Amino acid sequence: MRPTLRNRANRNWMTHSQANQQFLGLADFCNFLDKWFCQYQKQTPPFTALEIGSHMGEGLQMLASTHLFNKIHVIEPFKGEEAFNTDFKWTWEEVRQEWELNTRHFRDIIKLHEAFSYEVVDKFFDSSINLVYIDGDHSYEAVKRDIELYLPKIRNRGILSGHDYHTAWPGVMKAVDEVVGTPDKVFQDSSWMKIIKTK
């Protein structure tokens, strides 16, 4: 079976040493979300989430499975440069087919925006989203732009988060640290999160 980014991750691609930390780390992240919103904040689902960069939709599938969200906006252009596609010979058409397969049970809550993140930012009201997860272009410039564009969209005590806060991705680390400071927590798959207080 051909490798994917999370569910069948290839160890040569991963920057972590143990089993499939890509999957297990995101599972820990999802568990944290449930505790943060429902236990610590005493809030009642449903909530709204936004994912920037979905690729094959494996992480999206896990996020939707938490049943915390009644709407998950997904920004994914299904085009452009992607090292994983090149290394493992996936075409964007095949990636899109895999995305459709992985998200098939959650079509009622997923809203796909087939575009780049900077093209659709005006579609979202400020202070309207509980969770933003950034996993698109990993360059410093792109991550910084995504954080700055979508930070105002997060509700008070909502969560700004993303993937690959790791020394293998120095641009991600630099952008996060510069704009919002050191993450409040980094999970074993290198997902990071920052609680956003606007009041």
List the helices and strands and how they pair.
Layout: H1 21-40, E1 47-52, H2 58-65, E2 69-75, H3 83-88, H4 92-102, E3 110-113, H5 117-120, E4 129-134, H6 140-150, E5 154-162, H7 170-179, E6 185-186, E7 192-196
Parallel strand pairs: 1-2, 1-4, 2-3, 4-5
Antiparallel strand pairs: 5-7, 6-7
Helix pairs in contact: 6-7
- Please, what is the average pLDDT? 92
Gap from first CA to last CA: 49 Å
Task: Provide the structure class.
Answer: alpha/beta
Order of helix and strand elements from N to C terminus? HEHEHHEHEHEHEE
CATH class designation: Alpha Beta
Q: What is the H level of CATH, i.e. the homologous superfamily?
A: Vaccinia Virus protein VP39
Question: In angstroms, what is the radius of gyration?
Answer: 16 Å
Write down how many β-strands occur, each being a DSSP E stretch of 2 or more residues: 7
The percent of residues in helical segments reads 25-40%
CATH architecture: 3-Layer(aba) Sandwich
What does this structure look like?
It is globular, with a radius of gyration of 16 Å. Helix 6 links the parallel strand 4 and strand 5. The N and C termini lie far apart (49 Å). Strands 3-2-1-4-5-7-6 form a 7-stranded mixed β-sheet, with helices on both faces. It has a single domain, classed as Vaccinia Virus protein VP39 (Rossmann fold), CATH 3.40.50.150. The longest helix is centred in the first third of the chain and has 20 residues. By secondary structure, it is an alpha/beta fold. Helix 6 packs parallel to helix 7. 35% of the residues lie in helices and 20% in strands.
